[in-house]
Amino acid sequence: MTNLPASADELAAGLASLDLEARLQRVARFAGRKVFTTSLGIEDQVITAAIARSGTAGAIEIVTLDTGRLFDETRALIDETERRFALAVERYRPAPIDVEAYGARYGLNGFYDSVEARHACCDIRKLRPLALALDRAAFWITGVRRGQSGARAETPLAEWDAQRGLLKVNPLADLTLDAIKAYAERHDVPLNPLHARGYPSIGCEPCTRAIKPGEPERAGRWWWEQDQTRECGLHVRDAASPITPISSSKVQVPAT
Ligand code: SF4
Q1: In whole angstroms, what is the distance from residue 188 CA to residue 179 CA?
Q2: Residue 234 Cα, ligand 1 centroid: separation in angstroms?
């Protein structure tokens, strides 16, 4: 184990010349808890495969946010991924009391009615479970890529997440979708069948649609909203939180 890097910039500079598996090995050597959050999309599946192939599965925990609204295909892929790579994907689920409170206030599918209601749903089903998943973590590894959307165009290889007090590592930040696909094909990585049906970005079933030819990769996420609101709060950089707390759950929402 080595001490933490002096800064996110130093870490990013050290990762820049490495390939994906070497990047993960570099991060795995640092002291502290290291958590990779997967949504089972192609980027995250490639990272999971790279963790398995690089021998870092013991050092990097793999978790997913099982929102309760995932596609059947995604849930099946979690099981398949565990079998294929002989590793565990830990599921973090929303607190039942939060789901109940949300339903009472907004209705089960109230997220279609307003941006506030949608952010409140992402809060209880994603952000609060994420806060638990990242508890006491020193590193958070994600599959965010610059090419996924305009909002992600400046994503660095590593950055300080002041909200959560950890180093966020984006080892795919500078890779193209073609490079991701090539890695997946080369290593026979199991993929969500929804990708082949026009879903380059896959989230919760009621909030994701297939995209049309020429549309941006994330155009199918919360498609009924304006572009500037289309993030769930997991990967918002240097911005105020969209979170609207709705219940008295003891789970702590990340400070924003
Ligand atoms: S993506 Fe949709 S269903 Fe999933 S947590 Fe957000 S609002 Fe709720």
Answers
A1: 14
A2: 12
Q: Does the pLDDT value for residue 235 go beyond 80?
A: no
In the reported structure, the alpha carbon of residue 180 is separated from the centroid of ligand 1 by a whole-number distance in angstroms of: 26
pLDDT-based confidence at residue 228 (cuts at 50, 70, 90): low
| Segments making up each domain of the chain, as ranges | 8-195
Nearest-atom index, ligand 1, CA of 118: 7
Torsion of the alpha carbons at 215, 216, 220 and 226, rounded to the nearest 10: -100
Looking at ligand 1, which residue's alpha carbon is closest to its atom 4?
204
For 67, phi then psi, to 5°, come to -70, -15
Is the Cβ atom of 96 under 6 angstroms away from ligand 1? no
Residue range 41-100, pLDDT digits in tens: 999 999 999 999 999 999 999 999 999 999 999 999 999 999 999 999 999 999 999 999
CA angle 150, 144, 70 (to 5 degrees): 105
Catalytic residue status for 207: no
Verify whether ligand 1 is closer than 6 Å to residue 60 (CB atom): no
pLDDT (tens digit, 9 = 90+) per residue, 159-217? 999 999 999 999 999 999 999 999 999 999 999 999 999 999 899 999 999 999 888 88
Query: May I ask the CATH class of domain 8-195?
Result: alpha beta
- Ligand 1 centroid to 167 CA: how many Å? 26
- Residue 130, ligand 1, Cβ within 6 A: no
Share in percent of the chain as helix, strand, coil (round to 5): 40, 15, 45
pLDDT at res. 249: 36
Encoded tokens for 51:
């963790």
